[in-house]
Amino acid sequence: MDLRALRCFLAVAEEGHFGRAAARLHLAQPPLSRRIRDLEADLGCRLFDRIPTGARLTPAGEVLLVEARDLLERAERARERVRGAGAGRVLVVGVAAGAGLDVGPAPLAALRRSRPGLRVRLREAPVTDPSAGLRERRVDVALTRLPFDAAGLTIRPLGVEQVVAAVPAGDPLAARERLHVGELAGRPRFRLPPGTDARWRAYWLAAEDDSPGPVVASVEECLHSVVWEGAVGLLPAGASVRHARSGVAFVPVDGHPPSRIVAARPADCTDPLVDALVEALAEALAAVSRDARA
Fold first, then answer.
1. Looking at the domain assignment, is residue 73 inside a domain?
2. Is there a single domain that holds both residue 99 and residue 138?
3. Which of 19, 107, 133, 221 is 20 to 30 A off residue 66, Cα-Cα?
């Protein structure tokens, strides 16, 4: 499939409107529509239904949306690797559930100064992937959180982070300074999809696996479920800063173990540059922890 056609498809799928997608791509709408029609002809199925507000994905379009994102991401990674072979090394760091984002740019800047030509790119993983792309070899290092199945990976502990409950702002629990995780029992929880790592699902759900509630695949969907559906659930404490918004209250939680932040890489990785990157991240997070205690 033509990557340009896939980028057009992705823009229409995300905007839900051909006109807005065309503006985003700096294209006139007729050529955009032609590319979508050509893609549909190539695949032999319709990808969008026209609706009064714009365009809606068909079931076939929903399938292609997942595949298109994957293909475009792989193409971009291949482009960076090829460019990096001539211009310097590119290391990709996968980040799961906001792990390690408090380190700031200083350690990576220092690493680049000592290794001219090095580039470091962050890739945010969906909350359904605790390996942050490591299992598919999309990233060189993962900043992630335990617990999850870490077989075949080398794990470097970096620190811990408390968890908070995300609850509707109008909920009586929202006015509390702290709450016990048991107080969330019986409420609809936002849940991770079946097939997500079992240990990861159990930790973040902190309830029976058949608890009612919406299935989510991103932090944004977690927060939308709180606002729109009255669901509750656990998130890392940093979410109260990074994702603060009206309609959602974040309350510190007792009775649940803290989230353990780690750096992960394949057990068979012997790249000294990856070693140096992990060490820089570990030192930076240790410094953040010391400053927080001071």
1. no
2. yes
3. 19
